[in-house]
Queue: 4 jobs
Job 1
Amino acid sequence: MKLLNKTLQYYFWLSIVLLMVAIPVFYYVLQRIVLSNIDASLVATKTQLIPRLRVMEIEPEALQPGLDDGVTLEKAPRRPESDSLYTTDKYRLLTSYLVINQETYRLQIKSSLADHQRLIGSIIILQSVLLILLLTGLLLINQSLAKRIWKPFYQTLRKLRAYKVDDPAPLQLAPSGISEFGELNSAVEQLAERSRQSYLSQKEFAENASHELRTPLAVFQGKLEMLMQTTPLSEEQAALISELADASHRMTRLNKGLLLLTRIQNGQFPDTAAVFVRETARHLLAQYEPQIAQKGLQVEEDWLDELPVNMSPNLLEVLLGNLLSNAIRHNLPGGKIVVKGANGVLTVSNTGQAYPLQEDRIYQRFAKNSKDAESLGLGLEIVRKICDLYGFEVKYSWEKGMHNFQVIMKS
């Protein structure tokens, strides 16, 4: 949940609690005020009636015609000490006792509550609506203000998500009028710049080291070949030279892989042309036939179209070569490889280990998911770098025992 929504959620629940508490409290207080006014009115009516009722002491026959609606006067057996006020279903009643001509009378004055209840209900509804509108307005204003206040934060977040440490330009964040966000942007820019400089230093070191190693490795391999042709060689010497040749071959491949990565990152493949993925894939599969036959692999192709793309032909060969060589190298003896192309998507699937690969590691440099000594841990990183260069997307999935690599070349 976003921080903005989290804050609004607190405000929302606080508003609900306020409404739940405020409405009953307001209703109770309003009802007490109304009852107090009714009681005062009943007492005032009684005070006005008493002088008129005292006339009965002089003219006993004039009592009943002078009473208003809601006022009753009747004889009572005895007189209580004080007046009483109470509420029935529909009325508020004041009961008082009078002694007229040595006889006790009970005076009852009632006031209807129906009109007052309707008035209270209307006031409560109006007050609730106003309260809801007020809280809704406060929530909307708070949301609007929060969005405006947090806008620099989300701008920084979008920049950071899009930023790559191998970008040629340093990270530049938008200035903010809020000092806290300004300090955050400054700290993030400094951190990103330190990371970029560290990355550039490492890249330059790898580039220089790979470049400088090319000549010694070539000399080393040449001398090894010459040494292998010398005679006599004992079996032990031949084995040692063979191991040295394997190590030299591996170092050469590693060196070529690092140089290739450096050239891709430096944009040293500017030339592009219209190339066809199916044609290149078939050409590479033909080259890999000895390795495929050695493992007894079954190859299936399913092409819906030629899958034309505009990119460097060399890099297309590298991309397909890495995917196919991985599918061969990490396959099971007698396994299966499926190459499909349709709707701008190339898919290379292969059988292999019976569990999915760690997708967050397979594109990392020198990350290996097998103990194969021939694997350098660079192939999939090269694939990803080529995809990044041309705006492709590479995805991995594991379904029904097949490891699937999809390269989405057209959106």
Job 2
Amino acid sequence: MLLKIHVEGDTEKRFVDRVLISYLTSLGFIVKVQTNQTDATHFGGLSTYAQFRKNTIRLRGHAPCLITTMIDLYQLPSDFPGKDEAESRKNAEEKVLFLEQKLKEDLDELSPDFIPYIQLHEFEALLFSSVDTINRNLQNATPSTLSKLKTVLHKFGEPEKIDTNKGPSVHLKEIYGTQYQKIYHGIPIAENIGLEVIREKCPHFDSWLKKLEEYACSHR
């Protein structure tokens, strides 16, 4: 069973390749990951929904497959379906579910083999599943930096609730400065945390994987 994952950038691609791939293949999927192409020569980012939509449709190809996405809620482009309406939702959880539904409706031609996923609020939220692991993996870590991480997590309660007003990546850069580089540190930290813990701490992320599990079970 072929699973194509349309991801926002290189970090998400590496996350799938190094953290998710074993789990996904255990479900029976053959996994292909495609980073969003933003122009003729550049990959990564989500500058316009129109381009993202075109690229997602193009993934379908000729062989039967399930298509899913992994993009950030943070800084969705202005032409994303339902973006203005989503602002009236009372919290981020309702907002992201609304936007995923709008994405599914807008890509109806992929139905029923399309499962949209938008990360709350960005990739670094997953890392806050274990602030101790973040701190152990960065060179300038101290008890003080760990304390600051715990303060951020305590303020919001859950990793996925660290919001877009000041996203998790901004907190990491403020605490660690240039010692935190997403592309170099994000994936090793996620690997050390482990998928089981990330799923436990990030219910929206976990719900995405459960949908993939259900699809895999129903197509055996």
Job 3
Amino acid sequence: MKFNDIYVVDDDKVFHFIIKKLLENNNINVRPDFFENGLLAINGLKKKIIQGENLPDLILLDINMPVLDGWQFLEEFKVLKSKLNKDVIIYIVSSSDNKSDLNKAKTFQDEVKDYYLKPMTSEDLKAMFSN
């Protein structure tokens, strides 16, 4: 699938920098928007829906964030999903390999395509963008 617009939802600015560099180094030409928590990302989605703007094709979502964490984001996203005019693919990208988080991600199988562990590698990114 070809992605044009992506959301990176993570409170770690180092992760933002790493994603930017991985995209550049792998010649992946997309327009990333960066959000430091789930609330900012959900509000960004709502704004785009109201204004009829292009929605992101892909969301890279951390689960451990302040304000509105990844799980809360996914609950909000479920509510918004019916208002979206296209499919938005979500990958969880987390440093947590806790079994409870991995199992919880499976409860969002209609929203979450896959779960990646940090640190992300070029191979991870290529796999995401080749699916």
Job 4
Amino acid sequence: MRPRPFRGFRIAIKSLTSHPLRVALAVLAIMIGVASVIVMVGIGRGAEDEVRRKIEGMGTNLIVVSAGQSRSVKGQVGQLGIMTTLTLKDASAIAEECPSVKRVAPAYSKKLSVKFENVSYSTRIVGTMPLVQAVRNISVESGAFFDEDENRLMAPVAIVGPTVVQTLFSGRNPVGESIRIGKVLFKVIGVTVPKGAVSGEDEDDQILVPLRTAMNKLMNVTYLSNIFVEAAGFDSIHKAEAEIRSLLRDRHRLRASTVDDFTIQNQADVIEAQSSVARTFSLLVASIAVISLIIGGVGILGVMLLSIRERVSEIGIRRAVGAKRTDILVQFLVESSFLGVVGGFAGLIVGIGGAAGVRQFSGMPVTLAPDYIVLSLVFSVVTGLIFGIYPSWKAARLDPIEALNTKA
């Protein structure tokens, strides 16, 4: 004779397979809940990874010092007025006097009209130093970047972004061509590698020119709009920020009660803020999926109660031939848990397929999260088990004589 637990398991499986439609309806909500967790959390993780990749692509351990105070208006960070307090001497002082700083690239940027043949439009012109390549992680796809000699000699050379290539040159190779920025003729010597958009700003829609050329020939200014700083390491970003703030306040002779006349943003805070938003989104989606799983549990509860009502005579016969209450309890707990397991694995298959479909047809980045996949599977089994306790207990409490005399 087979051991009792195994016999109860066999009876439970036989009972479930004899009602496939009922089983399918019971596991549907569980399947939807698990699939929702896998797909939606995958989309959230993918978006988080994409944002992190783009932010890190702007530069390693990056700190941006901007002239004036910045304010967020309608989600866009902008400067209040024109500030002239940030100078080349400030940039040199940061490089020389801040021990937690590795490299510094001063810059002045402004939106100007650019013309090539009969095509013209406005884009951001960034005057900067060759060191910006290392500080902001800028690579050249074709041609070359300008060097220190070209900056010192105020050479009219330009490095254009991919968006400029598409807009101004209709995708043609622009290296060697001449463009007019404002009233000055520049020679294009290179094209940067695409970076995409970060925080709603197209990093490819810009033209890089030597800083001295920009300040003296193009914009006629003696001050900077930004200083890009690379900290010595990720752990020293906040220390470098404190050193820069202290140095600039001292150089600008600001009193203790006076607010900064500059703004410092560091990469670590931006990444943390973006990650926090993505985590909140993932938790929100996971909460909705948990509600779906609970609804699925209620479905299992209903199916189990209906099943017990139809099988009262069967329970009475089993009790009459020697089955104990624990045998009946185990049999129906196995049935409810089996529904959770089937729903969980069906949701796993649908979820992985759905994630692949979203990635394929929408182009959205989707990153499967193993921890949430395992958690959703465990939760589906636990849901089936918990919502099967009451029906199983009710079946085990049936009196065998009353059960045998009951018509299903």
